[in-house]
Structures
1.
Amino acid sequence: MFDWNNSYSVQIGSIDAQHQTLFRIAAELHSAMANGQGKTAVARTLDRLIQYVSMHFSHEERLMRLHGYPDFAAHKAEHDALTKQVVQFQQEFQAGRAIVTVQLLRFLKEWLQNHIQGSDQKYAPFLREKAVA
Ligand code: FE2
Ligand code: FE2
């Protein structure tokens, strides 16, 4: 379900590596859920995912700001909206109002796919031109 492949590559080393890690943590969340691991294990993986996402978004935003990427505001707004959705889910999960469902996994998959292949691909040529690696 969460397999990174070349169609996700933005041809910027640091960002590809982070995207690959994101896929790996999402896959761990998938298997924690599929193997019926306890709530604590799932919560821990979800925490890790959110922390990693936040680090990754900061990395991209720092690069975009540093190089004056013209679509920065729209891209950041997308990051903020995605973060809000996942954090909201996490809160519901912690409060016992939600379980990690196929729905969340599907949301993550669509998000990774659409955001990376859409918005991230849009900044890629711009940053590559600035010799970002
Ligand atoms: Fe990204
Ligand atoms: Fe992004």
Note: The first helix runs from residue 13 to 34.
2.
Amino acid sequence: MNVYDSRKMADVLAPMGYKQIEEPDGADMIILNTCHIREKATDKVFSELGRLKKHKDQGEKEDRKVLMAVAGCVAQAEGDFIAERAPYVDMVFGPQTYGELPEMVAQATGAYGKDRVINTNFDEEDKFDKLPEETTEQGPTAFVAVQEGCDKFCTFCVVPYTRGGEYSRSVKAVYNEILKLADQDVREVSLLGQNVNAYHGLDENGNTASLADLILKVADINGIERIRYTTSHPRDMQQDLIDVHAHHKVMPYLHLPVQSGSNKILKAMNRKHTRDLYFDIIERFRKVRPDIAISGDFIVGFPGETEQDFEDTMDLVRHINYSSAYSFKYSQRPGTPAATMGGLVREEVKDERLQRLQALLADQMRQFNEQTVGLDLPVLFDGNPRPDQLHGRTPYNQAVHVQGNPRLNGHFENVRITGTNGKSLTGELILAEAA
Ligand code: SAH
Ligand code: SF4
């Protein structure tokens, strides 16, 4: 979501003459886009700001004003604190305000006689309307936000407080944005939302569309060959979304976080579902796409997690067989209900559990990747890390490296998968053989 938001900030600023560059050196504006999901986020922001300030100081020496900004959820949650502790920051603004950047920049550059901007307004209905459809996007894959915010209030999570309540964009707004992307040779879109499968946008007839309805509409767009979506919540999983995986443009990949395999911990987390519901959903997906790659998120060491609860998580993982996953130590977030819960798990215990879980998940990832060695898979090339090497992704979202001409960048080619280091794949172009 932050990658998408950063691109949108660049799009809003483009008509003002700003262009995104790779390094802060020589920049006229530096925006630090931040995430607040786990702790130490604020500390990281301050150390990063300290590092970036030297570019502003250098600018001043050269009589050039360098605007410094903090955006994102840390700005939303701790705007005043940042402004106070880092007086050299010119703009602090939250994720709902990016459409107002032109006014904020005008203010920060002194056009209105005032200079500092602190904007943590919460006007989510308007956010997307104020963002341009035109994009500076380059490359064959793109993120598109379709839903934002969350009403679920899992007891560990800051998202409902920093991103606000659930909001879905209209089918038309999403469709138009993707039409433009397709025109710019984008071939794969990832539909984004904090709870993307809670999507309930209005269609052109004023009816509510589900994520599956939206996906089918996007699938009609010429040029868009691959559709992905992330992140889903088990409670919002409807059969129509499962069934839509039969469509050839919908990739055989699902990111469905479960957080814990223990019913007791799931309850304390306010996830409002059981481990059995999770098993049932995965089974239904596998009925439609037996080869589907499953990914997930896990939290270890939630307050009250016993060795048995953790074993329940390990057991769930053993039953599911993940192709990839993200796992985290529980991180206490001020203002969330879990922050005041008893039964804190010691740091060493969290470390040790995380290691065990990650070892199991790494094994499963290796196994999944090994199963694809020997297959011929369509790969969309999205970069060339070296002049003679291409990087791309399989339908299962695995990274592949092959030798090949950079002009294949942005194209689909069939690749014979020849090996894996456990994490990514190597392969050979089949095209070369045919030619
Ligand atoms: N809406 C998604 C998750 C969004 S947050 C869902 O409900 O599944 C992304 C991930 O960050 C979560 O899945 C969770 O694993 C992790 N996370 C969120 N808050 C956390 C916390 N306080 N400590 C550790 N991990 C956390
Ligand atoms: Fe956070 Fe996801 Fe729970 Fe919403 S559903 S509160 S985003 S973990």
Note: The mean pLDDT is 94.
